[in-house]
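Researcher: Next sequence.
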Amino acid sequence: MLLNTVYDKYKTISIVGMAKNSGKTVALNHLISEAIEEGIILGIISTGRDGESIDVVTETEKPKIFAEIGTIIATTTEMLSLGDATVEIIYVTDYRTPLGKIIIGRVKDSGYIQIAGPQTVNEIKKVSSLMLNLGAELVIIDGALDRRSSAAPSIADAAILSTGAVLSRDMDKVIEETIHIVNLFNLPPIGDYIAREVVEETINRGQIAIIDKDLNVNPIDIKTALNCGHIIGDHIEDNSKYVVIPGSLVKNTIEDLMNSTRKYKNIDIVVTDGTKIFIQSKDWLKFMKKGIGVKVLNPINLVAITVNPYAPQGYYFEPDNLLERIRYYIKDIPIVDVVLGGE
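Model: Next structure:
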């Protein structure tokens, strides 16, 4: 059971899809059906919008979301009437979206629902806490890779990654992209707890800075690391230990850094967590081979991967083959094909 990987271990989990139609909603429905069997009260929230039968962007058919009596959901005032479940409104938040105010409700008569959530990390966290206070035993946050922050440790205790055939017609490419995201999510944290405190304070101040081996912080007077890798590189000295980047880490920042100094091999770049890295697999491997070191303040607790062998474009992989091959390369995380019934 997929539910066994999270229930009684965590209070909030996020399901993050690597792309649209990667099987994220199928995974969510799988968890919901297992929770119904076990009599577990769920809270369900989305970082965007979910539950509609046709994807409003791709115009492809989507699985609906079924909610049992007692389920606590977050949705908006406009979307409440779009499902056929009877929902009692128990809390109206001040959080606004283009689809209306976010409300929290309890399902009184089971049926299909459409869900939505607030726009910011802080608001999602607050809504999750409200749901737990209202009796949810486990809150599931329905996220997406284009909103990877839904997997961040600041939002959820654990994450489930959904991948599948939709990524590419080439199975090798699907596996490569999946391994890449798993590697980013599993980047090592800073081991020294004193250094960690210094890095955390620097990130909380929003400062791009160099921290030396004596843990002195030397801020760099730039607002963003984008297009400023050469400036960062110019500030790296022989005793430098960490380059702290509070925002996103992208390809050109690392390229410019490497081109401006050879001392980059002696430092670790530190970001908040793996959701802050936006670098393609082939570029990431190239940087690793050239000696770039990256650590995180907070590692992401990836507890399971779900695979969907079918793509909405009409092609598919042989399910057992895809499952077997991903399991061959990723050994320490449970991998489940929820389309085949969770085997």
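Model: The chain has eight helices and 20 strands. Helices lie at 24-38, 121-133, 171-185, 193-204, 229-234, 251-260, 281-289, 319-329.
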